[in-house]
Amino acid sequence: MPPFLGRTEEQAQFRRVLDEYKTNWAQKNLPTFTNALTKWSGKAKTAPEKPYIFLFYGAGGMGKTTLTRRLASLIDTEYAHQFQHFLLDWEDKQKLNIALQVGHDHIESDKILDVLHDALTKAGWGKYFDDYGKQRKQLSDIEAKVDKALSGQPSDNAMLNEVAKRGAQGIAFIIRRSTGLEAASKDIESVLKISAEALSQTRQFVQRALETQEYDLYANPNERLAEALGKGLTKLTQQKPLVLLFDTYEIIDRPECDYTLRHVMGHSGGRVLWVVSGRSNLADSGQLGGGYFRGYKRDFPEDRVYAKQLSEFGIDEIQKHFAAVAPQQTELTDEQADAMSRFSLGIPFVVNQAAVMYRDGKPVEEIVEPVQRELGKTTARDAVIKATCERFLVHCFSAKDRAQDLQAIYALALMRRPNAELLREMLEVTDGLERRLQTLRERYSFILVDELRLDEKLANFLRDYLLNPMRRTERDVQTLNKRAIAWLEPQLKTWGQGIEDTAEKLTEERIAEGRLDLAHHYFWQSEDAGWQYLVPRFIEGWQYDRA
Questions:
Q1: What's the CA gap between 503 and 505, in Å, rounded?
Q2: Under a CB-based contact definition with an 8 Å cutoff, are residues 478 and 411 in contact?
Q3: Dihedrals φ, ψ of 348, to 5°?
């Protein structure tokens, strides 16, 4: 386990909040006397109605997991026996649960509730969530009741029969979509192919078949199940406050799932503290993909939400981290720490990987600077870059749309400069490029859609990662390069039409940039191809401008 350094502000805020919740000896052992004394003194403190929520976010490798586990350990050491706490790592749960392995955009929100309920039950708190189990069983019974009613209906209603083919679960989906805040009737008609009249008849039919309470659960299962989980947490915290810590939350943070978990939070009461660590900023509202994302600051009071983007390590923190990881080695000089800062970009994960290499005897210079590879061997720098990129892309490798996601990310990394037309050709997307990138952005926070590029931290490492001869010559990478070259070459001819004077042609910015783009992609293809293209262009240009 790497040493924990820094993050003093985040820890201080966590301690301040815990101090507000903790009970002293008298409150714990003499509650009746303490309450009477508090009431007599007039110093009663109103218990909060809403939970306290910590939101930590940032790109991969910024230390979110390390911080989350550090906060859990603080409870065990500094606040022993004063709090209950539970850490749920969604990445670990994904490895064990098929329902979480369907890809970020396809995870169903009720499955998230089941995973949380199962985890809390296995932690020994199952008795507090009996109502959740009852609601789950009741929902299955209601669906069976609807199926039975559908099978017994007269066959002369063609419109209702068409909808009935979808079964109880299908009809429930239609009803929920049509009554949801994010759906409109035109979506039902165009996407689900159900007319407004058929939808109305179906809703009325189901309402007649069910009791009012049954219909409410059938039409709004996630809200009712989330409420049952939240109220179970309220019961659990009657004796002692609870801290729930979620790590790698980016796996399940798409709006539908996140909003459902917020229902749990909203019903959990003021004695629950939530720590949510993920890649995206969930605190602020704004456009997300093709829709609007409602941030936590809109759902919870401002004084109950602490949102913090984790920052990079400074030179002083880098030196301290190296000293802690490699105490037997010579401490880094200021010059070495500066070189390590420029190489690592201050990303804690990279700093720790490099520090381990240094502890194992690799000199700083070999870690931060490219050196000639010996055949069949990996340099220290290559090893750090590989580990870093695989950490950045860990969720991409396991995504349902893995091939498409990696193709788009690699294309953005390979491009010399942002160019929408070129990117369309590389990805073979004739329409909907923005939507595809927005969807990527929802899954991976390092996509900067409007700027048509990757976050610079990832881009720097990913280019070096792809330059490894084994990966650079992979078919997927070379296909992207070939498409770029195949588009750029005829474009240059088109742009040069009507310009007879070579000097004038070379000073035309679009042509000059296009030639540089082409040289760039030829070099990605191979060093020989790059030089074969560049040398004649260089000599041609040199004739007109020796400077």
A1: 5
A2: no
A3: -55, -40
> Cα angle at 445 between 442 and 447, to 5 degrees?
90
Tokens linked to 160: 């209702």
DSSP class of 272: E
pLDDT of residue 543: 79
Q: What is the pLDDT of residue 503?
A: 80
**CA distances from residue 27 to 24, 36, 80, 165, 359 in whole angstroms, order as listed:** 5, 11, 16, 60, 49
Give the residue-averaged pLDDT of 154-164: 59
List CB contacts of 303: < 8 A, sequence separation 6 or more: none
* Paired strand residues for 274: 53, 244
Residue with the two structure tokens 């720590």? 275
Strand segments (E) across 148-268:
242-247
99-130 pLDDT, tens digit each: 998 888 889 999 999 999 999 999 999 999 99
Instruction: Output DSSP code: residue 102.
Output: S
pTM, full prediction: 0.77
User: Alpha carbon 392 to chain centroid distance?
Assistant: 11
CA distances (Å), origin 344, targets 124, 326, 327, 335, 394: 42, 17, 20, 14, 19
The CA-CA-CA angle for residues 204, 206, 207, to 5°, reads: 65
DSSP string computed for 278-317: ESS--SS-EEETTEEE--HHHHS-GGGEEEEEPPPP-HHH
Q: What are phi and psi of 431, to 5 degrees?
A: -150, 150
- The 10s digit of each residue's pLDDT in 209-256 is 888 888 888 888 899 999 999 999 999 998 899 999 999 999 999 899
Distances (CA, A) of 502 to 95, 505, 545: 60, 5, 12
Residues 6+ apart with CB under 8 A from 125: 232, 236
Rounded distance between C-alpha atoms, residue 194 and residue 333, angstroms: 70
Q: Residues of 104-120 as b/e, b for ≥16 C-beta within 10 angstroms?
A: beebebbbbbbbbbebb
CA-CA distance, 75 to 158, in Å (whole number)?
A: 62
Strand order in the sheet with 242-247: 84-89, 242-247, 272-278, 52-57, 305-309
The structure tokens listed for 278 are: 């993920």
Does an H or E element contain 417, and which?
none
Amino acid at 281: N
Provide long-range contacts, Cβ within 8 A and 24+ apart, for 139-148: 139/217, 139/218, 139/221, 139/225, 142/168, 142/210, 142/214, 142/217, 142/218, 143/168, 143/169, 143/172, 143/218, 144/168, 145/209, 145/210, 145/214, 146/171, 146/172, 146/206, 146/209, 146/210, 146/218
Q: In angstroms, what CA-CA distances link 11 with 16, 69, 313, 323, 513?
A: 9, 11, 16, 22, 49
Distance, in Å, from the CA atom of 77 to the CA atom of 455, rounded to the nearest integer, reads: 37
Beta bridge partners, 279, equal none
